[in-house]
Amino acid sequence: MSGPDARPAEKNSALACTTCPRRCRLAPGALGACRARRNVGGAIVAESYGRVTSLALDPVEKKPLARYLPGTLVVSVGSYGCNLTCPFCQNWEIAQAGEKDVRWRTVAPDELVAATLEARRRDPRVFGIAHTYNEPLVAWEYVRDCAELAHEAGLANVLVSNGCCEPGVLDALDGLIDAANIDLKGFSDAFYASCGGTSRSLACVRGTIERLAADPRCHLEVTTLVVPGMNDGEAEMEGLASWLASLDGGRARETLTHHVTRFFPHWRLTDRGPTPVADVYRLADVSRRHLAHVFVGNC
Ligand code: SF4
Hints:
With 299 residues, the chain is α/β, with parallel strands linked by helices.
């Protein structure tokens, strides 16, 4: 095995997981906060590897990707688990769940690629595989293994992620992701703390976005869900959008796509109504002061 969690066996020691900034210290047999990774036999492994809870054929626009192969379809696969605990989680049934909370079946990388090729044989609009629904990077090894086989088969790879990972994960996926939608949920450490993040979470997300924005092999779009009372201030959107526009030497202003989307009450955040549509449009206009391609969603 290669990648950020590869290390010599220390069967009786606690190990720090290096996949994300939570840096869970896991005793032998212990499960990480994401409920996807475990210390097994002296190594931290993705226990959720290949455990599929959701498999669907989606329009690419649903990921959302607004400016990547419009009109096409993508096989979308999800498992369970996440390294954040956003109280407004829109996919909490699988993202805020462990192996015993959901129904899953094992789909090996070669099976997923074969199923995608079969889907493409039936409908030539199918272009590839999207890792989505829960947080894919808590089992980045599955993303990597599927993506390598998908490229060999002439398929493209899409990543839909919170982007909250250590740089070693991106090293392991280098050159494998053709398009990505990364959440930039807010623009303060306090906001990420309210999502169960650490003091380094926003920095890690920014690092992921910065790196993908500068990678000519990857088409990048970014999503910000506007939650009333949490991140609906114009100053925060101004800072966020101007930072996005500055990426890749300022070229991101024309290349990067920003989705400003509407919140609906979910999971632990049911004390307020959906984001007023006017607020979503107002904040999208703030983003448009900096970026050429801004879309509203869920309105
Ligand atoms: S990926 Fe999971 S186990 Fe690893 S540090 Fe993050 S939350 Fe903990």
